[in-house]
Amino acid sequence: MTFKTRISFILILLTIVISGCKGSKTIVSNGEIDTKLTAKQLIKNSNKANIDFKSLVGRLKVEYVQDQKSKSTTLSFRMEKDSTIWMSYLGIAKVLITPTRVAFYNKWDNSYFDGDFTYLSNLLGTDLDFEKVQNMLLGQSLYNLNDDKYDISANDKSYILQPKKQRDLFELFLFVNPSHFKMDSQEISQPKDKRILHIDYLTYQEVDKKTIPEQTKILAIEDDQQLEINLELKSVKLNEDVRFPFTIPSGYKKIEL
Question: Fewer CB within 10 Å: N-end or C-end of the chain?
Answer without folding.
Answer: N
